[in-house]
Amino acid sequence: MSIVLDLGGLGPADLVAGPSALSELMASLHVLAEPEHHPEAVGWTARAAAAGPELRDELSLFAPLWARYRCRLFFPRTLPLASSLDEELAAIAALPAEEFLELVAPGVLGTNAQPVPPARELRAGTAAAEDYARRCLRRSYARGELARQLVAAPLDVRDRLLAVLRAADTAFFAEDWRSLRTPLEDHAGEVRRRLAALPLGAPLSLRSPADVLTELLPTAARVGPGERVRLDKLQIDEVKVAPRPLVLVPSARVWPHLTVKSEYPWGVVVQYAVLGTTPAEQLTLRDLHHRLMALTSPARMELCRHLLGEPITTSELAARLGSSEPQVSRALRTLRDAGLVHSTRDGKLVRHRLATDVVQRLGHDVLATVAR
Which of 171, 262, 309, 328 has a CA that sits 20 to 30 A from residue 73's CA? Predict the structure, then answer.
């Protein structure tokens, strides 16, 4: 399962990289709302919650907007990118009711599986609005309540949301952003330098925007002919980016998620974790599958028990298990290919040992890969 981005037809001016304070605030609020998905941020979560306890009810009301689906409102919609959170919030404050509804209503529902009526149809009392609110309520009470308020008074919801975002900025985000902004801007500057160095009109055998994107995202890979990049996510979609721009938004808080927003008519946005802000290697779905499958065999699991205590040779393992050396070698190869066993040469002997750090991380790797 994956999202494929087709970058064909993009010119240098169509590729933009830069941090967004609003997107980072949204990622931070997601961590605060779902701390069980982010055990690596437990210290930050505790500090942020303690800094703004009075915000709990309002943040709970709006939490569907920064749940896994992520509301389009929080991502860049125009170029050039805004230079500050105040500028991004001012742009939201200027939105008329219908455009605010267009951006927010899908986020309240929180799924692509069900279409949302056009904003002009979401007027209080209409059949379309009542059906939309019922669908949101079926997903959760919080979504249903927010949908009801949104349809009844979109501008009141807009102003209330702005108030809670500003309060969160005052309580904990402004201090956080002061330390995060410079490294994210430095990273974005390096990305822009890579993109600017791409030769215009060069053949596909040379470096291209797709190459830069796969360098930035550890779980991305080029696929098929042309400028197509597969992003490892538990979704299935193919997005033709051009003639819209592609906006790359580096983040320190979004891990383990990789967020792709491709709604028309706005540009395609990819918010990704900057390397160095992630607690461990990022596995592809295929790598995770190999590791889990390698441990489903009772024979290989028994091997792991022996390999846990000390480095052991193939012949000694065969003797302990009452198996032939070729059988043990095949099992070891499967475990080694999955990254679960390390083999080192000691003179004429090769000794094998369980990669305990990899096994210990598996639970967290499963969560991180599913959450992506």
Answer: 171
99, 281, 300, 360 from 333: Cα distances, Å: 57, 22, 10, 20
Instruction: Give pTM, 2 decimals.
Output: 0.79
- pLDDT in 10s for each residue of the chain, 372 residues: 689 999 998 887 889 999 999 999 999 999 999 887 787 788 889 999 998 889 999 999 999 999 989 999 999 999 999 999 999 999 999 999 999 999 999 999 998 888 999 999 999 999 999 999 999 999 999 999 999 999 999 999 999 999 999 999 999 999 999 999 999 999 999 999 888 876 555 544 456 888 889 988 888 989 888 889 999 887 788 999 999 999 999 999 998 889 999 998 999 999 999 976 555 566 677 777 788 888 888 888 888 878 876 788 898 888 888 889 899 999 999 888 888 888 988 888 888 988 887 887 776 666 666 665
Assigned token pair, 228: 């197509």
